């Protein structure tokens, strides 16, 4: 018997828009993380995220959000994955994390038949991150929940496994509040995958270069590995020297394709990003988990949306899946304060970024 916990959330829908959405709020005032707090927050914001994603396609259906699952092995111990359902079908994943006394979330719109099966069969399971993949582990076997390799076996029988319970969501639709009608611009930058690691280093910076170069020039078919290889070849580097190629080479890589850039060693306010986007200049953002870390990520801010009460960035993240890239699923960050020069972003596999340290445009 499936457990249903009732609540009411009013949400708003943008038609024909399949996106990822991230937001932060201090509605729930607290100073420490708790499972109940994370779940309460998920119930508060789930409807809004589902509405923005366009997943609320059937207004006669029942919508709900699951209990939270810790992603064991993720970098942030507060990250919890909640699953969104339309009737009995899982339609997305809401990741919630806790930072500086508040919760924030990112919603990933996706058809998740594996979660649907777990729900329909009342199967307890756990989520575990290893080898840059998230595994769903039930009492019989493990499954690659996301990641590049669909056939990577992994099993752990020591994790506590929990079946899905859901909290009901009442969906209402307003066509106007979130309509992109106030001021916005979205640049059609290609989504380039970070599908190859070089000597243990990710190539997110090279994927960002490839994306922006193809947007601004006539180059086509660029890949993260290709950008990396071009830099190694043109600079005459040996394999040993190529170990040093990382995000600090981003601007040099742009030069290889005739694209001139500028940079600053910090983030930007919403109005500054808006100015660059209006000039058809995507902004490459280098982000860190916190100010003490030296291992981070790079994304491309390729658009913005501004309503009377909300401010969004559109991001190209190279760490989406191949299917998501083919479907052009960008990520949308809802800003807490347009005057901030940071944004909060929790990834599908539990990484949390909140320190924007480099901007290139």
Question: Could you give the topology of this structure?
Answer:
Elements: E1 4-6, E2 20-25, H1 35-53, E3 63-66, E4 69-72, E5 80-86, E6 89-99, E7 102-109, H2 113-120, E8 126-130, E9 133-137, E10 142-146, E11 166-169, E12 183-186, H3 204-216, H4 224-234, H5 239-242, H6 250-256, E13 263-264, H7 270-278, E14 283-288, E15 297-306, E16 311-316, H8 322-326, E17 331-334, E18 345-346, E19 352-353, E20 355-360
Parallel strand pairs: 1-11, 2-17, 4-8
Antiparallel strand pairs: 2-7, 3-5, 3-11, 4-5, 5-6, 6-7, 8-9, 9-10, 12-15, 13-20, 14-15, 14-20, 15-16, 16-17, 18-19
Helix pairs in contact: 3-4, 3-6
Keywords:
single chain; 361 residues; 18-stranded mixed beta sheet; two-stranded antiparallel ribbon; 21% helix; 8 helices; alpha+beta; 20 strands; disordered N terminus
Please give a quick description of this structure.
It is built from eight helices and 20 strands.
Report what the structure shows.
The chain has helices at residues 35-53, 113-120, 204-216, 224-234, 239-242, 250-256, 270-278, 322-326, and strands at residues 4-6, 20-25, 63-66, 69-72, 80-86, 89-99, 102-109, 126-130, 133-137, 142-146, 166-169, 183-186, 263-264, 283-288, 297-306, 311-316, 331-334, 345-346, 352-353, 355-360. It is an alpha+beta fold and 361 residues long. The strands form 2 sheets. The chain has an 18-stranded mixed β-sheet that branches. Strands 18-19 form a two-stranded antiparallel ribbon. Strand 5 (80-86) and strand 6 form a beta hairpin. Helix 3 crosses helix 4 and helix 3 runs parallel beside helix 6 (250-256).
